[in-house]
Amino acid sequence: MILTFLGLFQLFMMSATSHGSSTVADGGQTSKSTEAEPGTSCGWDEEEEENLEDIAADIYDLIKDIRDPEKPNTLEELEVVFEQGVKVHPLQEGSDRYIIRVEFTPTVPHCSLATLIGLCIRVKLDRSLPQKHKIDIFITKGTHSTEDEINKQINDKERIAAAMENPNLKELVERCVADHDA
């Protein structure tokens, strides 16, 4: 049954086309030159660094409990997501808008559910965070055989919207992102 959902999801992801997407699928810079990197001489102070680290920790807390589509484990338990994989940078200096970058590592280099896991992370963050932030989700470089294609899919709004229109796929994503507090 999971493979049927996966096949439907991949069909949606492959058939949707991107129009004007500005996301760079290879994990490179995705913003204008106004983006500041931590540690640069943009007038950052330690308090702002700590604030960004706190935001990254909060984002990690949102995604760590997402369930794997096939196993009863969370993405944190399977070490698919990890604290160092969440980075937050201000969109502009002094702004309360951020670029949030999440990297995840599939359990195996040919994981057939990597796209679905990325979709679950995207849905959870889109629902939990204000729309004023830019969210980029990438597979950790060198950890999946088709990472470039998957990165492109999970960062394309039209493909995500098309995938979430499928009721079976939507139900599967809902199960993965549901809060499972016991």
From TrEMBL:
One of its GO terms (biological process) is protein maturation. Keywords: Chromosome partition, Signal. Residues 1-20 form the signal peptide. It comes from the Eukaryota. SUPFAM superfamilies: Fe-S cluster assembly (FSCA) domain-like (SSF117916). Residues 20-33 have a biased composition (Polar residues). The keyword Translocase does not apply. Residues 20-46 are annotated as: Disordered. The keyword Signal applies. Belongs to the MIP18 family. This is MIP18 family protein FAM96A-like. It comes from Acanthaster planci (Crown-of-thorns starfish). The lineage of its organism: Eukaryota, Metazoa, Echinodermata, Eleutherozoa, Asterozoa.
